Amino acid sequence: MRILTDEIGGAAGEVDDLAVLYRPPSLPWLRVNMVSTLDGAANGQSGKSGSINNDADKQVFRALRAQADAIVVGAGTARTEGYRVAPVPLVIVSRRGDVPEQLRDAPEGSVLLATCAGSPGLAAARALLGASNILVAGDDQVDLAATKELLVERGLRNLLSEGGPHLLRDLLAAGAVDELCLTWVPRIIGGVHPRILEGADVDVELRLGLLLEEGDTLIGRWLTR
User: Fold this and answer.
1) Would you say 158 and 67 are in contact if contact means Cβ atoms under 8 Å apart?
2) 10: helix, strand or coil
3) CATH no. for residue 192?
4) Half-sphere exposure for 216 (CA within 13 Å, toward CB)
């Protein structure tokens, strides 16, 4: 990969170490990693992001996961993408208190659930995962800013969210996002697909921190602060 712009660290030329380039400027830090086609699709024919990403995007995906203390993901995305237990805790966000089927037999502490007090599935989730693995934030909706604080209190300070589009929108609206990592793959697919952000209007200004190029793929870090 080649660095086109690095406003954070001032590096130039070829990339030697993605881990250094993607080091958070400070902690706690929550970044969201997404991928998009040039015409704005966040997934392809299969309905999964894996149907549009490429090797360059996978390199960044692995680098971000390698330094994360926890991975935050919406329940729907975890279900669709077939999430499994990771080396760090998976934090499933669900207003309904829904734990995806494939994660219900996960080892103790490997899956946390972020939900709200009014969740219809709260009692069942506590019985399934254990009360200590349930984060209750908000009354009728998940308070994502409070969820971030609860994770930080547990020592999970370098947080990586992998979406999906509705969770990204809600995180931005809550002011919980410090950074958006976005890969533009050189494809146009048409059709009807979600964008990287779905839901009610939200208007957040970001500034470019890093722009990389690999072949015809562009990979950026956009900061909210």
Assistant:
1) yes
2) coil
3) 3.40.430.10
4) 7
